[in-house]
Amino acid sequence: MTAGSAPQSKRYDLLSMGRSGIDLYANDIGVPFVEIQSFAAYVGGCPTNIAVGAQRLGLRTALLTAVGEDRVGDFILHFLNKEGVDTRYIPRKPGHRTSAVLLGIEGPDRFPLTYYRDNCADIELTIDDVRAAPVADCKVLAIAGTNLSKEPSRSATLYAAESARAAGATVVLDLDFRPDQWSDPRAYAINMRTALRLVDIVLGTEDEINAAMLSEASQVELKHWQVSDARVAGDVDANIAALLTLGPKVLLQKRGAAGARVHLVQARGTVERFDAPGFPVKVFTILGAGDAFASGAIYGYLQGWDWYKTVRFANACGAFVVTQHGCANFMPTLEEVEAFVAERGGW
Protein backbone atom coordinates (compact mmCIF):
# COMPACT_ATOMS: atom_id res chain seq x y z
CA MET A 1 0.00 0.00 0.00
CA THR A 2 1.31 3.43 -0.91
CA ALA A 3 0.39 6.72 0.70
CA GLY A 4 -2.44 8.51 -1.04
CA SER A 5 -4.17 5.44 -2.44
CA ALA A 6 -7.46 6.10 -0.64
CA PRO A 7 -10.54 6.77 -2.80
CA GLN A 8 -10.93 10.41 -3.83
CA SER A 9 -14.69 10.87 -4.39
CA LYS A 10 -15.98 10.72 -0.85
CA ARG A 11 -17.83 13.26 1.31
CA TYR A 12 -15.48 12.82 4.27
CA ASP A 13 -11.77 12.35 4.40
CA LEU A 14 -12.06 10.64 7.78
CA LEU A 15 -14.72 8.96 9.87
CA SER A 16 -13.32 8.23 13.32
CA MET A 17 -15.17 5.77 15.55
CA GLY A 18 -14.93 5.04 19.26
CA ARG A 19 -14.63 6.54 22.68
CA SER A 20 -15.08 10.11 23.77
CA GLY A 21 -15.11 11.73 27.17
CA ILE A 22 -14.25 14.66 29.35
CA ASP A 23 -10.57 14.80 30.31
CA LEU A 24 -9.76 16.36 33.67
CA TYR A 25 -6.06 17.28 33.75
CA ALA A 26 -4.39 18.26 37.00
CA ASN A 27 -3.45 21.93 37.20
CA ASP A 28 -1.00 21.06 39.96
CA ILE A 29 2.18 19.93 38.25
CA GLY A 30 4.73 17.68 39.90
CA VAL A 31 2.65 16.81 42.96
CA PRO A 32 1.28 13.41 44.04
CA PHE A 33 -2.21 12.66 42.77
CA VAL A 34 -3.64 12.81 46.31
CA GLU A 35 -2.50 16.42 46.63
CA ILE A 36 -4.16 17.75 43.46
CA GLN A 37 -6.21 20.87 44.17
CA SER A 38 -7.83 21.52 40.78
CA PHE A 39 -8.30 20.17 37.28
CA ALA A 40 -8.70 21.71 33.80
CA ALA A 41 -11.54 20.32 31.68
CA TYR A 42 -10.83 19.23 28.11
CA VAL A 43 -12.22 16.76 25.56
CA GLY A 44 -10.52 13.41 25.00
CA GLY A 45 -10.73 9.80 23.86
CA CYS A 46 -8.46 8.32 21.19
CA PRO A 47 -10.84 8.42 18.18
CA THR A 48 -12.17 11.82 19.25
CA ASN A 49 -8.67 13.25 19.50
CA ILE A 50 -7.83 11.83 16.07
CA ALA A 51 -10.93 13.44 14.53
CA VAL A 52 -10.14 16.84 16.05
CA GLY A 53 -6.48 16.60 15.05
CA ALA A 54 -7.35 15.71 11.46
CA GLN A 55 -9.93 18.49 11.26
CA ARG A 56 -7.40 21.06 12.48
CA LEU A 57 -4.95 19.89 9.83
CA GLY A 58 -7.55 20.59 7.18
CA LEU A 59 -9.34 17.28 6.57
CA ARG A 60 -13.11 16.88 6.43
CA THR A 61 -13.95 14.74 9.44
CA ALA A 62 -16.93 13.14 11.11
CA LEU A 63 -17.04 11.35 14.46
CA LEU A 64 -19.05 8.27 15.38
CA THR A 65 -19.15 8.09 19.15
CA ALA A 66 -22.00 8.23 21.66
CA VAL A 67 -22.71 10.45 24.64
CA GLY A 68 -25.21 10.35 27.45
CA GLU A 69 -28.16 12.66 27.95
CA ASP A 70 -26.06 14.69 30.35
CA ARG A 71 -24.11 17.93 30.68
CA VAL A 72 -20.83 16.19 29.91
CA GLY A 73 -22.25 15.09 26.58
CA ASP A 74 -23.28 18.69 25.94
CA PHE A 75 -19.72 19.79 26.77
CA ILE A 76 -18.20 17.38 24.24
CA LEU A 77 -20.65 18.16 21.44
CA HIS A 78 -20.21 21.91 21.98
CA PHE A 79 -16.45 21.59 21.61
CA LEU A 80 -16.65 19.34 18.53
CA ASN A 81 -19.11 21.66 16.81
CA LYS A 82 -16.80 24.62 17.40
CA GLU A 83 -13.96 22.61 15.87
CA GLY A 84 -15.95 21.80 12.75
CA VAL A 85 -16.05 18.04 13.32
CA ASP A 86 -19.37 16.70 11.98
CA THR A 87 -21.38 15.50 14.99
CA ARG A 88 -24.66 14.63 13.30
CA TYR A 89 -23.93 10.88 13.58
CA ILE A 90 -23.32 10.93 17.34
CA PRO A 91 -26.31 9.39 19.15
CA ARG A 92 -27.38 10.09 22.71
CA LYS A 93 -27.74 6.95 24.81
CA PRO A 94 -30.49 7.30 27.45
CA GLY A 95 -29.56 5.64 30.74
CA HIS A 96 -25.84 5.75 29.98
CA ARG A 97 -23.24 8.31 30.98
CA THR A 98 -20.63 10.17 28.99
CA SER A 99 -17.25 8.88 30.14
CA ALA A 100 -14.51 10.75 32.03
CA VAL A 101 -10.77 10.52 32.59
CA LEU A 102 -8.68 12.03 35.40
CA LEU A 103 -4.97 12.63 34.85
CA GLY A 104 -2.22 13.57 37.27
CA ILE A 105 1.04 15.11 36.09
CA GLU A 106 3.59 13.97 38.65
CA GLY A 107 6.51 13.97 36.18
CA PRO A 108 8.91 13.38 34.68
CA ASP A 109 7.49 9.99 33.64
CA ARG A 110 4.55 9.55 36.00
CA PHE A 111 1.12 10.40 34.62
CA PRO A 112 -1.41 8.43 36.71
CA LEU A 113 -4.59 8.00 34.71
CA THR A 114 -8.01 6.90 35.97
CA TYR A 115 -10.91 6.04 33.68
CA TYR A 116 -14.58 6.37 34.64
CA ARG A 117 -16.27 4.23 32.01
CA ASP A 118 -18.85 2.25 33.98
CA ASN A 119 -22.19 2.39 32.16
CA CYS A 120 -20.49 4.48 29.50
CA ALA A 121 -22.38 5.72 26.44
CA ASP A 122 -19.80 5.24 23.69
CA ILE A 123 -19.46 1.50 24.31
CA GLU A 124 -23.19 1.27 23.48
CA LEU A 125 -22.65 2.04 19.80
CA THR A 126 -24.63 -0.46 17.75
CA ILE A 127 -24.69 -1.86 14.23
CA ASP A 128 -27.67 0.40 13.55
CA ASP A 129 -25.61 3.43 14.63
CA VAL A 130 -22.98 2.36 12.10
CA ARG A 131 -25.62 2.00 9.40
CA ALA A 132 -26.75 5.56 10.09
CA ALA A 133 -23.17 6.88 9.74
CA PRO A 134 -21.29 7.71 6.50
CA VAL A 135 -19.14 4.57 6.53
CA ALA A 136 -19.50 4.22 2.77
CA ASP A 137 -18.79 7.91 2.22
CA CYS A 138 -15.37 8.29 3.85
CA LYS A 139 -11.87 7.80 2.50
CA VAL A 140 -10.52 6.55 5.82
CA LEU A 141 -12.23 4.83 8.75
CA ALA A 142 -10.24 5.03 11.99
CA ILE A 143 -11.05 2.62 14.83
CA ALA A 144 -9.38 1.91 18.17
CA GLY A 145 -8.68 -1.15 20.27
CA THR A 146 -10.87 -0.08 23.18
CA ASN A 147 -13.89 -0.13 20.84
CA LEU A 148 -13.71 -3.94 20.99
CA SER A 149 -13.63 -4.27 24.78
CA LYS A 150 -17.40 -4.81 25.16
CA GLU A 151 -20.60 -5.38 23.24
CA PRO A 152 -22.42 -3.87 21.42
CA SER A 153 -19.46 -1.64 20.38
CA ARG A 154 -17.35 -4.69 19.51
CA SER A 155 -19.68 -5.99 16.81
CA ALA A 156 -20.49 -2.46 15.63
CA THR A 157 -16.80 -1.71 15.11
CA LEU A 158 -16.14 -4.93 13.21
CA TYR A 159 -19.20 -4.25 11.09
CA ALA A 160 -17.96 -0.71 10.39
CA ALA A 161 -14.55 -2.01 9.31
CA GLU A 162 -16.14 -4.66 7.11
CA SER A 163 -18.50 -2.12 5.53
CA ALA A 164 -15.80 0.52 5.02
CA ARG A 165 -13.57 -1.96 3.24
CA ALA A 166 -16.44 -3.08 1.02
CA ALA A 167 -16.96 0.59 0.06
CA GLY A 168 -13.29 1.02 -0.83
CA ALA A 169 -12.20 2.98 2.24
CA THR A 170 -8.89 2.49 4.03
CA VAL A 171 -9.27 1.11 7.56
CA VAL A 172 -6.84 2.37 10.19
CA LEU A 173 -6.56 0.66 13.60
CA ASP A 174 -4.94 2.31 16.60
CA LEU A 175 -4.15 -0.63 18.91
CA ASP A 176 -4.97 1.59 21.92
CA PHE A 177 -4.23 -0.99 24.64
CA ARG A 178 -5.88 0.01 27.95
CA PRO A 179 -5.57 -2.99 30.26
CA ASP A 180 -8.17 -1.85 32.78
CA GLN A 181 -10.83 -1.89 30.05
CA TRP A 182 -10.45 -5.65 29.58
CA SER A 183 -11.33 -8.47 31.95
CA ASP A 184 -8.35 -10.41 30.58
CA PRO A 185 -5.52 -9.12 28.35
CA ARG A 186 -5.80 -12.33 26.35
CA ALA A 187 -9.26 -11.17 25.31
CA TYR A 188 -7.68 -7.98 24.00
CA ALA A 189 -5.23 -10.03 21.95
CA ILE A 190 -7.91 -12.29 20.48
CA ASN A 191 -10.07 -9.34 19.50
CA MET A 192 -7.18 -7.45 17.94
CA ARG A 193 -6.22 -10.47 15.86
CA THR A 194 -9.81 -10.68 14.67
CA ALA A 195 -9.95 -6.98 13.77
CA LEU A 196 -6.56 -7.00 12.04
CA ARG A 197 -8.00 -9.11 9.25
CA LEU A 198 -10.18 -6.11 8.33
CA VAL A 199 -7.46 -3.46 8.64
CA ASP A 200 -5.08 -1.80 6.17
CA ILE A 201 -2.91 0.38 8.43
CA VAL A 202 -1.99 -0.34 12.06
CA LEU A 203 -0.57 2.08 14.63
CA GLY A 204 0.93 0.95 17.92
CA THR A 205 3.81 1.02 20.34
CA GLU A 206 6.10 -1.94 20.97
CA ASP A 207 4.07 -2.85 24.04
CA GLU A 208 0.78 -2.60 22.13
CA ILE A 209 2.14 -4.80 19.35
CA ASN A 210 3.23 -7.37 21.92
CA ALA A 211 -0.20 -7.12 23.60
CA ALA A 212 -2.00 -7.77 20.31
CA MET A 213 -0.04 -11.00 19.85
CA LEU A 214 0.26 -12.15 23.48
CA SER A 215 -0.81 -15.56 24.75
CA GLU A 216 -0.37 -15.20 28.53
CA ALA A 217 -1.83 -12.59 30.88
CA SER A 218 1.43 -12.66 32.85
CA GLN A 219 3.13 -10.84 29.98
CA VAL A 220 1.45 -7.57 31.04
CA GLU A 221 2.89 -5.37 33.79
CA LEU A 222 1.55 -1.96 34.82
CA LYS A 223 3.97 0.81 35.76
CA HIS A 224 3.11 3.50 38.32
CA TRP A 225 -0.52 2.31 38.35
CA GLN A 226 -1.13 4.15 35.10
CA VAL A 227 -3.03 2.27 32.45
CA SER A 228 -1.33 4.34 29.76
CA ASP A 229 2.05 2.82 30.62
CA ALA A 230 1.62 -0.94 30.45
CA ARG A 231 4.74 -2.97 29.72
CA VAL A 232 4.14 -6.14 27.71
CA ALA A 233 6.82 -8.78 27.35
CA GLY A 234 7.44 -10.42 24.00
CA ASP A 235 9.63 -10.67 20.95
CA VAL A 236 8.47 -7.55 19.13
CA ASP A 237 10.14 -8.44 15.82
CA ALA A 238 8.48 -11.85 15.75
CA ASN A 239 5.18 -10.30 16.77
CA ILE A 240 5.39 -7.70 14.01
CA ALA A 241 6.03 -10.45 11.48
CA ALA A 242 3.05 -12.43 12.77
CA LEU A 243 0.79 -9.35 12.85
CA LEU A 244 1.56 -8.52 9.23
CA THR A 245 0.54 -12.00 8.09
CA LEU A 246 -3.02 -11.25 9.25
CA GLY A 247 -3.69 -8.74 6.49
CA PRO A 248 -2.48 -5.19 7.21
CA LYS A 249 -0.14 -3.71 4.61
CA VAL A 250 1.35 -0.98 6.81
CA LEU A 251 2.43 -0.95 10.45
CA LEU A 252 3.56 2.30 12.01
CA GLN A 253 5.48 1.40 15.15
CA LYS A 254 5.52 4.37 17.53
CA ARG A 255 8.82 4.66 19.38
CA GLY A 256 8.44 7.79 21.51
CA ALA A 257 11.34 10.22 21.33
CA ALA A 258 13.02 7.98 18.71
CA GLY A 259 10.20 8.67 16.26
CA ALA A 260 8.61 5.75 14.43
CA ARG A 261 9.55 2.64 12.48
CA VAL A 262 7.64 1.97 9.29
CA HIS A 263 6.88 -1.59 8.16
CA LEU A 264 5.51 -1.89 4.60
CA VAL A 265 4.33 -5.18 3.10
CA GLN A 266 5.51 -5.44 -0.50
CA ALA A 267 3.78 -7.12 -3.43
CA ARG A 268 5.59 -10.43 -2.97
CA GLY A 269 5.04 -10.52 0.78
CA THR A 270 8.43 -9.16 1.78
CA VAL A 271 8.51 -6.32 4.32
CA GLU A 272 10.37 -3.05 3.84
CA ARG A 273 11.42 -1.32 7.07
CA PHE A 274 12.84 2.11 7.77
CA ASP A 275 12.95 4.65 10.59
CA ALA A 276 11.55 8.17 10.56
CA PRO A 277 13.25 10.13 13.38
CA GLY A 278 11.33 12.18 15.90
CA PHE A 279 11.68 15.77 17.06
CA PRO A 280 13.35 16.27 20.48
CA VAL A 281 11.18 18.28 22.89
CA LYS A 282 10.74 18.69 26.61
CA VAL A 283 7.80 16.45 27.56
CA PHE A 284 5.01 18.01 29.59
CA THR A 285 2.52 15.14 29.31
CA ILE A 286 2.58 12.01 27.17
CA LEU A 287 -1.19 11.67 26.74
CA GLY A 288 -2.53 12.50 23.30
CA ALA A 289 0.80 12.18 21.50
CA GLY A 290 -0.18 8.93 19.77
CA ASP A 291 -3.52 10.40 18.71
CA ALA A 292 -1.83 13.46 17.20
CA PHE A 293 0.56 11.06 15.46
CA ALA A 294 -2.42 9.21 14.01
CA SER A 295 -4.01 12.44 12.76
CA GLY A 296 -0.76 13.42 11.10
CA ALA A 297 -0.29 10.01 9.53
CA ILE A 298 -3.80 10.01 8.09
CA TYR A 299 -3.30 13.53 6.78
CA GLY A 300 -0.02 12.68 5.05
CA TYR A 301 -1.48 9.47 3.64
CA LEU A 302 -4.38 11.36 2.10
CA GLN A 303 -2.05 13.99 0.64
CA GLY A 304 -0.26 11.26 -1.30
CA TRP A 305 3.08 11.81 0.43
CA ASP A 306 5.63 9.03 0.62
CA TRP A 307 5.68 7.15 3.91
CA TYR A 308 8.87 8.77 5.17
CA LYS A 309 7.47 12.30 4.90
CA THR A 310 4.10 11.12 6.20
CA VAL A 311 5.60 9.63 9.34
CA ARG A 312 7.99 12.54 9.92
CA PHE A 313 4.94 14.80 9.78
CA ALA A 314 3.09 12.50 12.17
CA ASN A 315 6.08 12.56 14.53
CA ALA A 316 5.98 16.36 14.51
CA CYS A 317 2.28 16.33 15.42
CA GLY A 318 2.96 13.96 18.32
CA ALA A 319 5.96 15.95 19.55
CA PHE A 320 3.91 19.15 19.48
CA VAL A 321 1.21 17.67 21.72
CA VAL A 322 3.58 16.29 24.38
CA THR A 323 4.53 19.88 25.14
CA GLN A 324 0.88 20.75 25.89
CA HIS A 325 -1.54 20.34 28.79
CA GLY A 326 -4.17 18.19 27.10
CA CYS A 327 -5.24 16.19 24.06
CA ALA A 328 -8.01 17.30 21.69
CA ASN A 329 -7.90 20.94 22.77
CA PHE A 330 -4.21 21.15 21.89
CA MET A 331 -4.01 19.32 18.58
CA PRO A 332 -1.92 21.40 16.16
CA THR A 333 -3.08 23.13 13.00
CA LEU A 334 -1.18 22.62 9.76
CA GLU A 335 0.44 26.02 10.20
CA GLU A 336 1.55 25.14 13.73
CA VAL A 337 3.12 21.87 12.57
CA GLU A 338 4.95 23.59 9.75
CA ALA A 339 6.28 26.27 12.12
CA PHE A 340 7.26 23.61 14.66
CA VAL A 341 9.26 21.70 12.03
CA ALA A 342 10.85 24.85 10.59
CA GLU A 343 12.10 25.86 14.04
CA ARG A 344 13.85 22.49 14.26
CA GLY A 345 15.63 22.53 10.92
CA GLY A 346 12.87 21.34 8.60
CA TRP A 347 12.03 17.88 7.30
List the helices and strands and how they pair.
Layout: E1 12-17, E2 21-29, E3 39-44, H1 46-57, E4 61-64, H2 71-83, E5 99-105, E6 113-116, H3 127-131, E7 138-144, H4 153-166, E8 170-174, H5 185-195, E9 201-205, H6 206-212, E10 220-223, E11 226-232, H7 236-244, E12 250-254, E13 260-265, E14 271-276, H8 289-303, H9 307-321, H10 334-343
Parallel strand pairs: 1-4, 1-7, 2-5, 7-8, 8-9, 9-12
Antiparallel strand pairs: 2-3, 5-6, 10-11, 12-13, 13-14
Helix pairs in contact: 1-8, 6-7, 8-9
Give the distance, in angstroms, between the N- and C-terminal Cα atoms: 23 Å
Fraction of residues in helix:
25-40%
Individual helix count: 10
Gyration radius (Cα, Å) is 18 Å
Can you count the beta strands? 14
Shape by Cα distribution: globular
Low-confidence stretches: none
In which order are the strands of the major sheet placed? 4-1-7-8-9-12-13-14
The secondary structure category is alpha/beta
Order of helices and strands: EEEHEHEEHEHEHEHEEHEEEHHH
- Largest β-sheet summary: 8 strands, mixed
Question: What fraction strand?
Answer: 15-25%
Instruction: Give the integer mean of the pLDDT values.
Output: 94
